[in-house]
């Protein structure tokens, strides 16, 4: 915790008996946060850590807007509590442009017109990153399946699927 | 504020349960956290099972596939042992929620939630799954059909934990079929579902049939009358219609926001027709 390279975030002033110290890797940086252990991860990210990329749509696991990656697998930040992050590696959309693959996802979303209102985009981009990273061989049906947990109410999905199919073809 | 605890061994878990009997067990959290948020706040601790290595993983022993209760559904779907010995379960698990939900949600959680719409339940009934239950000083094994006692109700006793699901290998059923009807293809709660295990003779007649419907009664409905109407026959439309008619009479669906009773009865009767196309 005293390591100066670590970011001390969260609400350290909070009553100590209610707060837990949680250390994890967030977008490539080791962080230590003070938060109530049952704080929802979406609230920890957005309100305590200021990472407002991940969105809350439904709060019940039905829309995918809060999709993040934990230890490389997609998870829903609205259905996790802060204490679960201890020791884990967390990636949010804020780190999308940190990798070549992530940049290709971002660029493909732009060039394919895969963003309209943008609310689903962070979750959609993380689900896209997960599938092209894990299975670049994924064909169109596999990509549709990989994005099936993310709702978009604007695009009709076609542009989004096109974008991810394009990235997968680049990754192969 | 709820304390959140992460035991890594059964001994540590039962120690917590003994001293904090009001603690709740949390596997993937995909149902529990939604329910807790809807209810009034309390201070009952959450015992997370995700760091209990013993509860996570898939092995085989004596012609039985053994799945740790806290194994995520995505691991079950991708597992070669499951795909080979009980593909029916993998097919049903693949219809739960969406990919991120399946990375979190567990088989034990789907069982203990005991929703009438639990997608893995009809397969587990047909596969004769048995459940390993452990308490601090005792263990027992219960068939799934005896464990689930009603909507959201199980025979899980206070201080007890579901540790593993035992599934007898089922390759002899060459036809393993699961279909779920929902309002959309992903992120849908079943309006009705059908699981089927069929063993055909080399001549194409049904040697053994097991059929179960989900979401059309307080518990999974296995219909021996429908099964009997298939046995010894070919999977023609006529035979499958007869099985569907028997099932229509056996189920007790409700009206809810997803569908009406009448629609569900029609689905129950019609879903077996797919078995003709599946052969």
From TrEMBL, chain A:
InterPro entries: 2Fe-2S-bd (IPR002888), 2Fe-2S-bd_dom_sf (IPR036884), 2Fe-2S_ferredoxin-like_sf (IPR036010), 2Fe-2S_ferredoxin-type (IPR001041), 2Fe2S_fd_BS (IPR006058), Beta-grasp_dom_sf (IPR012675), Diverse_Oxidoreductases (IPR051452). It holds the Pfam family Fer2. The keyword NAD does not apply. One of its GO terms (molecular function) is metal ion binding. Gene3D superfamilies: 3.10.20.30, [2Fe-2S]-binding domain (1.10.150.120). CDD domains: fer2 (cd00207). It comes from the Bacteria. Keywords: 2Fe-2S, Iron, Iron-sulfur, Metal-binding, Oxidoreductase. Residues 20-96 form the 2Fe-2S ferredoxin-type domain. The keyword Iron-sulfur applies. This is (2Fe-2S)-binding protein. It comes from Desulfatitalea alkaliphila.
Automatic annotation (TrEMBL), chain B:
SMART domains: CO_deh_flav_C. SUPFAM superfamilies: CO dehydrogenase flavoprotein C-terminal domain-like, FAD-binding/transporter-associated domain-like. It holds the Pfam family FAD_binding_5. Keywords: FAD, Flavoprotein, Oxidoreductase. Residues 1-172 form the FAD-binding PCMH-type domain. One of its GO terms (molecular function) is FAD binding. This is FAD binding domain-containing protein. It comes from Desulfatitalea alkaliphila.
